[in-house]
């Protein structure tokens, strides 16, 4: 991380803020904070710019705020151009921005819920990665990292989150394919990590209930695990361990049998019954 240029979407709050703080602490030379909440991002930037790194010989990073709506492809193009002009090409990209709408599918608004969720959670990371990846591939002077924040919802179906789950399923499939393409073409200095956590207590999933043996994770724990996986170039990081267990059961059981296990034993299917979300 020392000396790296880091670009983080959804950087003004929650896990995005924690990623930014960690990048500064570990010696990043420059940090681009992308968010639609400019005021909150400005406050974080001012704090990070005056905080020296804890690594030996490190100094406070250059931090810049870019007001970018990642649901807008043209806004992403302008944001990348502005970031490149001020800070250079990113060495680390963290696709963190995301939204969730918890409702029955037929209650979703086609534009504000369905289309907007897919644009922010899936198309935005694709568009942004497509803009910065050629420069990452071309520069072999240091390792490059792409961290995609997906969800355990992208590994298992769940009622009342059909659109959110589909956006994360798509992200996982896309990210894994890009990872294989990079390795297959010899670009092994660019590593892609996909993080699939269960519920995290950021407020985004307020009211949701963790399934059996699946505690609600703290943002600090989630960021630590995702961060360490990214630095190591781990393809997929699934947390907690019950996410892997559920995937294994889903893979070997007939669908109807899994429905019984997920619904009555693990209580996955009722986890969103009391969802309220962030105000």
Automatic annotation (TrEMBL):
<dbReference type="InterPro" id="IPR002347">
    <property type="entry name" value="SDR_fam"/>
</dbReference>
<keyword id="KW-0560">Oxidoreductase</keyword>
<dbReference type="InterPro" id="IPR036291">
    <property type="entry name" value="NAD(P)-bd_dom_sf"/>
</dbReference>
<protein>
    <submittedName>
        <fullName>SDR family NAD(P)-dependent oxidoreductase</fullName>
    </submittedName>
</protein>
<comment type="similarity">
    <text>Belongs to the short-chain dehydrogenases/reductases (SDR) family.</text>
</comment>
<dbReference type="InterPro" id="IPR020904">
    <property type="entry name" value="Sc_DH/Rdtase_CS"/>
</dbReference>
<dbReference type="Pfam" id="PF00106">
    <property type="entry name" value="adh_short"/>
</dbReference>
């Amino acid at each position: 991380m020392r000396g790296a240029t880091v670009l983080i979407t959804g950087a003004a709050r929650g896990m995005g803020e924690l990623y930014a703080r960690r990048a500064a602490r570990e010696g990043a030379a420059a940090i681009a904070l992308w968010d639609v909440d400019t005021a909150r991002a400005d406050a974080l930037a001012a704090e990070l710019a005056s905080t020296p790194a804890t690594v030996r010989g490190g100094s406070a990073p250059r931090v810049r705020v870019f007001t970018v709506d990642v649901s807008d492809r043209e806004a992403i193009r302008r944001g990348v151009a502005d970031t490149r002009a001020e800070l250079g090409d990113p060495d680390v990209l963290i696709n963190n921005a995301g939204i969730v709408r918890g409702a029955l599918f037929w209650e979703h608004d086609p534009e504000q819920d369905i289309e907007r969720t897919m644009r922010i959670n899936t198309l935005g990371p694709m568009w942004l990665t497509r803009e910065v990846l050629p420069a990452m591939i071309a520069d072999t002077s240091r390792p490059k990292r792409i961290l995609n924040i997906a969800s355990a919802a992208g590994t298992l179906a769940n009622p009342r989150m059909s659109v959110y789950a589909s956006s994360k399923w798509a992200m996982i499939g896309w990210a894994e394919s890009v990872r294989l393409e990079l390795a297959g073409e010899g670009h092994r200095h660019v590593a892609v990590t996909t993080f699939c956590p269960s519920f995290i207590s950021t407020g985004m999933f307020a009211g949701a209930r963790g399934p059996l043996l699946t505690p609600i994770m703290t943002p600090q724990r989630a960021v630590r695990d995702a961060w360490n996986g990214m630095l190591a170039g781990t393809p997929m990081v699934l947390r907690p361990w019950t996410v892997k267990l559920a995937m294994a059961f889903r893979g070997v059981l007939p669908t109807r049998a899994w429905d019984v296990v997920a619904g009555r034993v693990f209580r996955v299917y009722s986890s969103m019954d009391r969802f309220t979300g962030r105000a």
